[in-house]
Design a protein that fits this description.
Blueprint lengths: L4 H12 L2 E5 L6 H14 L7 E5 L1 H14 L8 E3 L3 H9 L4 E5 L3 H7 L7 E5 L14 H7 L7 E6 L10 H9 L8 H8 E5 L5 E5 L3 H9 L3 E3 L3 H4 L5 E7 L3 H13 L1 E4 L2 E4 L3 H13 L1 E5 L4 E4 L3 H13 L4 E4 L3 H10 L3 E3 L2 H8 L5 E4 L16 E4 L6 H9 L3 H6 L7 E7 L7 H18 L3
Parallel strand pairs: 1-6, 1-9, 2-4, 2-5, 3-4, 5-6, 10-19, 15-17, 15-18, 16-17, 18-19
Antiparallel strand pairs: 7-8, 11-12, 13-14
Helix pairs in contact: 1-2, 5-6, 11-12
Amino acid sequence: MDLRPYQHQAIDHLLDHPRAAAWLSMGMGKTRSVLVALDTLYLTGELTGPTLIVAPKRVCESVWRQEAIKWGLDHLAPVSILGTPKVRERALKEKAHSYMVNFENLPWLTGKLRTWPFMAVVVDESSRLRGYRLHQGAKQAGALGKVVHQSQRHIQLSGTPAPNGLEGLWGQAWFLDQGDRLGKTYTAFIRRWFRQINCGGHFIKIEPLPHAADEIHKRLSDLCLSIDPRPYFGTREPITVQIPVTLPPDALGLYKRMERDFFAEIGRHEVDAKTAATKSMKLLQMASGAVIHDTATRDWVKVHDAKLDALESLVEESAGVPLIVAYHFKSDLARIKARFAQAVELDDQAVDDWNAGKIPLLLLHPQSAGHGLNLAQGGNILVFYTNTWNLEHRLQTVERIGPVRQAQAGLDRPVYVYDLAATGTLDEVMPERHQSKRAVQDLLLARMQR
């Protein structure tokens, strides 16, 4: 597949600026753009040493390697510095163009290396650097800050660089220019562009001055590229992105056995299906991470946490931007609530709180998100943790924050829909089924237009 025009723009920006940021929304091909830029730098001889890619753990485990192989850039598929210390040490000894480490292992990595070998550093989800300070602050960002300017190239990627306000930009900007544009220290940055408001007691609120946004934007505009997706995707339809989720081998083995034999044994529990329809439902449950083993009591047993980890990665990537998560099974609901303390189930009060910006993670079942419910004011991002065969339920759920609802709320912003799809399962079949149903419906509606 050819590169999209905006990907060429991003690649050119990264090539033209040794230290640069690309602020592109999820689904706009950030990973491929960086891989192509790195490949160009290696081909031209500008880069002769390895690249370090820093990212959330789930991204390290699959995304970059899969993308490199998918686009024929296998030589750039990174070696993952994950696992136990011994496994990480072995990974560092492998010869490769690129290596990948999660944020949590940065302190270990920088402490382990006597000399810094990486000619380029890529930070995927650079908003994780926003807590950096020169003498204190986030430990992980601090570890990288000690060595990052020894690299000739530095690339930052984010779809949400300042989700909680402009004050989150100083840390990220320091990694680009060591404070040349926004101030040598965080304190100087705050003093210049913000005012502090005492809200009572020890609580102090930071608020940008009227001229702050324009001045900060101008100072960062040469190094930071932001691309509006609307001219390329339009706003009449949501921007839909499938997020592949790699299941652990044992979980995928259980799934395949159920698929083949209508039966699987999980620990001390036996799970069986007497009909093809029941088997389909069991397979969807297993793909999402838990399956009902007793139809009478509706008790379920855990199969894996891969989708929970993928959702956590999306929550981290959104960096505070509110998300709606659509689930299908009660086990999904229970497990999501157990993982995310901030998650709130949909009810009448939750609708008002969501639209007032008080809920960061709203959980809803497609059957509860029926006609007339408007959730557009609270956000524009929807995640299908588990999909549904029912196209009407899916479309109705999407429409709760869809383009029409956004316009009705007076908001000019695209709508993003992310599908968590377990690789090698029925999750991957869903889009084809939906598309065939949608084609019939769209044809019918087009014929009825006056």
